[in-house]
């Protein structure tokens, strides 16, 4: 797996594309350590992501996210699941691309809406419309990623297997 040897495998994409769930499966399949940036931030700050947004605001969250990304980019051999907004910062994108192979998990807006229906854990979905936010971010994911994987209509383990096949295909 030349694509990820000595590197991290990094998942980016919109909320609900399955970064956290697929990342965990990939770490198992590849026998690598799994780190989810949101989880890391929550642990560091001692509160959940919605609590952190409510208590300190998005800017504070983004600063914490940037620190965590920089820290993970200095490590190797990880599977890293990011939060959907990680690509808003050009420095994050640079770090992630230099330290890892960046896979964009994607799905159409209707699929994402269904997956996230009733979700209360994603503060940004409570205010902005999902479709609007997706439209604003799509180009950022495309530019940041080395490859895109469509997750619509596929179970998480099918997506994970597809990512592994993609890495193996590169020898
Ligand atoms: N491929 C998939 N098919 C169906 N549901 C999925 C898929 N991937 C994730 N989900 C569901 O969508 C929700 C968000 O998944 P999650 O892994 O937290 O996404 P992300 O970290 O990208 O926001 C969860 O309820 C999860 O079970
Ligand atoms: O898209 C975003 O800006 C965010 C996505 C969330 O992560 P997931 O993409 O894992 O849901 C989390 O980082 C935070 O709520 C902000
Ligand atoms: Mg997640």
TrEMBL record:
InterPro entries hit by this protein: P-loop_NTPase, Shikimate/glucono_kinase, Shikimate_kinase/TSH1, Shikimate_kinase_CS
Entry's localization field: Cytoplasm
Family: Belongs to the shikimate kinase family.
Note describing how the cofactor binds: Binds 1 Mg(2+) ion per subunit.
Subunit structure: Monomer.
Free-text function comment from the UniProt entry: Catalyzes the specific phosphorylation of the 3-hydroxyl group of shikimic acid using ATP as a cosubstrate.
Upper taxonomic lineage: Bacteria, Bacillati, Bacillota, Dethiobacteria, Dethiobacterales
Gene encoding the protein: aroK
Residue sites binding substrate per the record: 38, 62, 84, 137
Protein name: Shikimate kinase
Keywords in alphabetical order: Amino-acid biosynthesis, Aromatic amino acid biosynthesis, ATP-binding, Cytoplasm, Kinase, Magnesium, Metal-binding, Nucleotide-binding, Transferase
EC number: 2.7.1.71
Organism: Dethiobacter alkaliphilus AHT 1
GO terms of molecular function: ATP binding; magnesium ion binding; shikimate kinase activity
Keyword Repeat: no
Positions bound to ATP: 16-21, 122
CDD domains xref list: SK
GO biological process: amino acid biosynthetic process; aromatic amino acid family biosynthetic process; chorismate biosynthetic process
């Amino acid at each position: 797996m030349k694509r990820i040897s000595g590197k991290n495998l990094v998942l980016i994409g919109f909320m609900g594309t399955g970064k956290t769930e697929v990342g965990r499966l990939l770490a198992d399949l590849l026998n690598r350590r799994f780190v989810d940036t949101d989880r890391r931030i929550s642990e560091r700050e001692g509160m959940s992501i919605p609590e952190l947004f409510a208590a300190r605001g998005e800017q504070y969250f983004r600063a914490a996210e940037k620190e965590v990304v920089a820290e993970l980019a200095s490590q190797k051999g990880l599977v890293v699941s990011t939060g959907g907004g990680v690509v808003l910062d050009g420095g994050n994108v640079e770090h992630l691309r230099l330290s890892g192979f960046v896979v964009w998990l994607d799905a159409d807006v209707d699929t994402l809406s269904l997956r996230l229906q009733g979700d209360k854990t994603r503060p940004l979905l409570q205010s902005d419309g999902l479709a609007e936010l997706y439209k604003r971010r799509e180009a950022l994911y495309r530019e940041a990623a080395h490859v895109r994987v469509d997750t619509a209509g596929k179970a998480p383990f099918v997506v994970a297997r597809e990512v592994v096949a993609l890495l193996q295909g590169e020898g």
